[in-house]
Design a protein that fits this description.
heterodimer; A: Rossmann fold; two-stranded antiparallel ribbon; 33% helix; 14% strand; B: Cytochrome-c3 Hydrogenase, chain B; 16 helices; 16 strands
């Protein structure tokens, strides 16, 4: 039986909950693999020395995350970036635009309820300059993206890997799975989701910044189908390095209006919400 | 017995997040106890700045993958408070149903996968797999419960984890009658499963009284929101009771800053909240299921009330024993299951008027909900375009961390003799049982706890 470990770096445990959300199928899966280490499922404290498959949730934020990741890589035959934080840095990497000391200073000394604040330092791992995807530090064999990934997708990928096969990921975009109608019109203005959309028509055509065109499919488009724009949580399509740029490109081609209404500070969190760490802009910032 | 003895528990397991505790004995005396939450925050308070207010419900919920709905709702309420928006009654009912799904999933997960293996003392393989070997029927029942919770979240919120439907002004999608019927389809079985799990818990606690009381009681203040003095999770004034169970004071969400402050400590990435009027450390308080039991007068649904009274008969009120958090959690699970049916049968929930357009504007708003793990506070300030200029969050687990640390210290004192005789393995497990009783969501209160016993 193949051995599996699951690791949580800097993230929110949502990918592990997605695994638990396999419900009955999780029990089935547990009959086909041996879980040797998983902070959410079993008590084993040590990382075992021979691992067939490691699922890594979360990004690298601290020296502890980095050391743990390297240890697991060394001991694993196959290592999977599990969820968008591990794949692309995730939502927390939006902070990469700011200086880490300012961040620490803000949270520990300047929020409204904090008094006599000091930045903690004793017996604690160091917070690194930026949030990084795990591929920055180790070789990643496969990626299962999403915030979080779809439970079915996890099961299928794990099944393939333990059989020695390459997991197949969807190659189309979210629009492909969206039920909204496209009329082929261009948006006249950029809208915020404080107004009510026409629930039948494509959100992007109505001016809502829906990232469907630039986002990998496989989720069945729940957000647009709930009348909310796609936030791009599954990351870019195959071989597209920068999801946000791809979306910006598509939009500028669609409407001139957009270029006029674009605000870098506000829209950074729209176009690169889950992938900022892997964006061209973040790379430029780091090389400075 | 002159050397320094160290016991490490790292990482803490069967909780959502990682942790370590350090307990140090020197010359036969307890020298130092530290609960190090070693994962730093992911700086959401800064990350939310410059984002449009209506995005906060979907951004902030990424703080926690275990109880995203709590953040989703606290954020939407805070923005609505800042922009003077009142959602319609059907929208609020939908939110409450979404929240019931969250409570069911989160509590079922904790009670089955995390806590139960500890309480079945003779169970050797203390995890889901071991539990399944011993009692497959129980595990299947717990999984069905969890699945019901996840299905509710998905049906109302659009996604089981990180839902999207709560938006300033209401909800983005109505519930249709067909979905409602589908959700109610297996209700009777779900309800039976819930009571079965509840009875197992109450039986264990009546048999294992000594084990339960081995974990020392902490006499603290307790804090929770209430509705007319009764149990409530979605909204209401915040009530504080003292360790005798008497109401100390009440305040409105907008007054939280004059009532709660957070102190930083050098050894942990979480901040230590306390009651401002009482001061630190006397004003430390606890939140979560046990606190809600101690604070509220009663609970609204019939079966939950029956178990609420049973709990009161067994342990009195207020209850200070940390392990009894689990029984209070059981009562809340029953309540959430009953509430889900009540809401699904309420005709207003499918009435369709669930969203109104809103005008983003300058303002300051506070949203407080009871998350599965305790009181959760979101506070946003927005500019004239409704863009967030300041954000402050006080998360559930953070408020329990100081008491958990104090509890570990008391337990370390108590376990000194066996530990110094070398029985560290059992002690390590007990420290973990204590921490787990609070169901700390350390990914939310940042991330990791280290237990070291020196």
């Amino acid at each position: 039986m193949k051995s599996v470990v699951t690791i949580g770096l800097s993230g929110d445990a949502g990918c592990h909950v997605a695994l638990v959300n396999l419900h009955k199928k999780l029990l089935k899966m547990l009959k086909t693999v041996k879980i040797l280490h998983s902070y959410i499922l079993i008590d084993e404290k040590e990382i075992p020395s021979e691992i067939d498959l490691a699922l890594i949730e979360g990004a690298i934020r601290t020296t502890h995350n980095e050391a743990l990741l390297k240890e697991v890589r060394e001991k694993s035959k196959c290592l999977v970036a599990f969820g968008s934080c591990a794949c692309f840095g995730g939502i927390a990497s939006l902070c990469n635009i700011l200086n880490v000391n300012d961040l620490l200073d803000y949270v520990y000394q300047r929020t409204d309820s904090t008094i006599e604040g000091i930045v903690p330092y004793e017996n604690l791992p160091k917070v690194q300059e930026t949030v990084r995807p795990i591929s920055d530090v180790v070789k990643v064999d496969y990626m299962i993206s999403g915030c979080p990934p779809i439970p079915e997708e996890i099961a299928t990928a794990v099944q393939a890997i333990i059989l020695g096969l390459k997991p197949e990921l969807p190659k189309k975009n979210v629009c492909d799975e969206c039920k909204k109608k496209r009329l082929g019109i261009t948006p006249k203005t950029i809208k915020r989701v404080v107004s009510k959309p026409d629930t039948k028509q494509c959100l992007l055509e109505q001016g809502y910044l829906c990232l469907g065109p630039a986002t990998r499919s496989g989720c069945k488009a729940p957000c647009p189908n709930y009348n909310m724009p796609c936030e791009g949580c599954r990351g870019p399509l195959e071989n597209v390095p920068d999801q946000g740029l791809a979306m910006l490109d598509a939009l500028s081609a669609l409407t001139e209006k957009f270029a006029q209404e674009y605000s870098p500070t506000i829209h950074l969190g729209t176009f690169h919400r889950y992938t900022f760490a892997t964006s061209s802009l973040a790379k430029m910032l780091r090389s400075r | 017995m002159s050397s320094t003895l160290e016991v490490h528990v790292e990482p803490l397991t069967r909780l959502e997040g990682h942790g370590k505790i350090l307990v140090e004995y020197k010359e036969g005396k307890l020298e130092n106890v530290q609960l190090n939450v070693i994962e730093p925050p992911r700086f959401f308070e800064k990350l939310l700045v410059d984002k449009p207010g209506e995005e906060a419900p979907r951004i902030s919920e990424r703080i926690c993958g275990v109880c995203p709905v709590a953040h989703h709702l606290a954020a939407v309420k805070a923005i609505e408070d800042a922009w003077d928006v009142k959602p319609s009654e059907p929208a609020v009912l939908l939110r409450k149903l979404l929240y019931a799904g969250q409570f069911i999933q989160s509590h079922a997960l904790h009670l089955s996968v995390f806590a139960l293996p500890d309480l079945l003392l003779r169970l050797r393989e203390k995890n889901l797999i071991g539990l399944h070997k011993r009692n497959p029927k129980l595990v299947k029942a717990a999984i069905a419960l969890q699945e019901y919770g996840a299905n509710l979240k998905e049906a109302i919120g659009g996604r089981a984890i990180h839902p999207v439907a709560a938006i300033p002004g209401g909800m983005s999608k109505p519930l249709i009658a067909a979905t409602k019927r589908k959700l109610l389809q297996n209700y009777d079985e779900i309800f039976r499963n819930t009571i079965e799990l509840a009875d197992i818990y109450f039986e264990i606690f009546s048999k294992r009284g000594t084990f339960v009381k081995e974990f020392p009681p902490n006499k603290t203040f307790y804090l929770a929101i209430t509705h007319d003095g009764n149990f409530e999770t979605y909204g209401g004034p915040v009530r504080v009771v003292n360790s005798n169970g008497e109401v100390e004071f009440e305040f409105q969400p907008r007054e939280y800053l004059s009532n709660i402050a957070e102190k930083t400590v050098k050894h942990s990435y979480v901040k230590y909240p306390f009651l401002k009027k009482i001061g630190y450390p006397k004003g430390l308080y606890r939140v979560g299921p046990l606190a809600r039991f101690n604070v509220a007068e009663t609970i609204s649904t019939p079966k939950a009330r029956e178990y609420w009274l049973k709990l009161q008969e067994t342990f009195g009120k207020p209850i200070h024993y940390p392990l009894v958090y689990n029984l209070a959690r059981v009562v809340e699970l029953i309540h959430a299951v009953e509430l889900s049916k009540e809401l699904l049968l309420n005709n207003k929930i499918t009435s369709g008027r669930i969203r109104r357009e809103v005008d983003p504007k300058e303002g300051s708003g506070v949203g407080i909900v009871e998350a599965p793990r305790g009181t959760l506070i979101h506070h946003y300030v927005t500019d004239k375009d409704g863009i967030i200029t300041r954000a402050n969050l006080i998360v559930a687990t953070g408020q329990n961390i100081p008491t958990i640390e104090y509890g570990v210290k008391t337990l370390a004192e108590k376990l000194k003799t066996p530990i110094l005789k070398g029985k560290t393995k059992e002690a390590q497990w007990k420290f973990e049982v204590l921490v787990r009783a609070y169901d700390p969501c350390i990914s939310c209160a940042t991330h990791l706890v280290e237990i070291r016993v020196k």
